[in-house]
Amino acid sequence: MSMNERKATLLQAFIPIIFLIGLLSLNVYLFGEDTNYGPNQIALILSAMVAVIIGIRLGMKWRTLEKGVVKSIASAMPAILILMMIGALAGTWMISGVVPAMIYYGLQILNPTIFLFAACIVCAFVSLATGSSWSTVATVGIALLGIGKALGLHEGWVAGAIISGAYFGDKMSPLSDTTNLAPAMAGTDLITHIKYMALTTVPTFSIALLLYIGMGLFATGDVQAEKMGEVLTLLDANFNINPVLFLVPAAVIILIIKKVPAFPALLIGSLLGGVFAIIFQPEVVHSVSGIETIGLESTYRGVLNAMFGSVSIETGNQAVDRLLSTGGMWGMFNTIWLILCAMIFGGIMERAGLLRRISEAVISLAHSTGALIASTTGTCIFFNITASDQYLAIVVPGRMYAETYKERGLKPENLSRTLEDSGTVTSVLVPWNTCGATQASVLGVATMTFAPFCFFNILSPITTMIYGFFNIKIAKIEKPEE
């Protein structure tokens, strides 16, 4: 902070947030489900300008605040690149028959009663192996959503089970970036962090699985055997369905396990999808090319159309047609727009010192161990809502609370566990957060539609606060003997 800059009051720090909440509420009332297609982006920018006015009144220059915006957007660029590649991958996996094959075989194996439980378990194992919730949702998650919808299950229920499993695996995997980031911020090691985090994570995940089993018992879907047979017949008639197609997702999972960065791994996966489409589904490739003559041009145009544009396989059945449609890279741009606007707001709030001012006030009120852990949880959720970035929701509270935990005689693994229990998993529940916006775009299900059914993500911060208030598994710093 320069000599001319002053510290914000608590009221000044809250003004942009109150303004944002007001606009978001108005947008929901006026635009309904279309709020993320423009209205919320404008609300974030206008709220950012309110924060700019406050920052300038505190003695800051526009150039300084602008640098905060650029830094914030730069932190989101890896997510934006991955998001674009997921769009391309979804397109080529659709025309290659990879996703239709997953739906085809899945419909014959799974039934509505066990589906939510099975979907959650499958995503948990894949995410645990890859260390990436995003890659899990973008690959097996898309296929599982198609199967669930074909079984007649509510898309919010299915998406919630997929996301719960994916975030459990991401949270517990040593390959995950957030699982490595949290202990680094708190000052502990990775293995200690994972072992200590399992004390809250495993019970929470078990409760989530029980809830999905319960939902399955009462929600048997509305698909009859005749309708199921029609879906299978249409998939078989329009695609060359065979197990060889599973080599494509298997290759992507292996690349991620081998620690190949997500962007090149997804690019290779999308290109493999294009190659398999040419080999196994030449008629489908030609149908999405937009030209009449079959040849090299139609092949090239068909694959590229699937990667960058919207494609839909026409079967004559509207329900099946919805399963067999993707938006490609183009379908991801509205989400990218939302992320950019969110990072503008978060960057200015961070650089103007408004977020830190609010967090300091919260720390001053936390006198007991339970209150301190609850304050950490609230701060992480607050940053997910205001800074719109999962990493900031771990890094900033981690820096803020590290010394306080030591002063209270608490080992750093208490902090690292709380950062993950509240910062990592709640990011996907916020529509304008990079995680919430991305998963909504990838699955084609609105954040507020699936959020109530992400039981693991909802229960995790509650569990960690219960442990804090009841002093369950709270590691203390042992005082040296005199």
How would you characterize the overall build of this protein?
- The chain has helices at residues 10-31, 39-57, 62-95, 98-109, 112-130, 133-150, 155-172, 177-186, 190-218, 225-238, 247-257, 262-280, 282-287, 296-308, 318-323, 333-351, 354-364, 369-386, 392-407, 412-426, 434-443, 447-450, 455-469, and strands at 311-312, 325-326.
- With 482 residues, the chain is mainly α.
- It has a domain at 80-331.
- The two termini are 43 Å apart.
Helix content: over 70%
Give the integer mean of the pLDDT values. 86
Give, in spatial order, the strands making up the sheet with the most strands.
1-2
| Structural class designation | mainly alpha
Summarize the topology.
Layout: H1 10-31, H2 39-57, H3 62-95, H4 98-109, H5 112-130, H6 133-150, H7 155-172, H8 177-186, H9 190-218, H10 225-238, H11 247-257, H12 262-280, H13 282-287, H14 296-308, E1 311-312, H15 318-323, E2 325-326, H16 333-351, H17 354-364, H18 369-386, H19 392-407, H20 412-426, H21 434-443, H22 447-450, H23 455-469
Antiparallel strand pairs: 1-2
Helix pairs in contact: 1-2, 1-17, 2-16, 3-12, 3-14, 3-16, 4-6, 4-10, 5-6, 5-7, 5-9, 6-7, 6-21, 7-9, 8-19, 8-20, 9-20, 9-23, 11-12, 16-21, 17-18, 17-19, 18-19, 18-20, 18-23, 19-20, 20-23
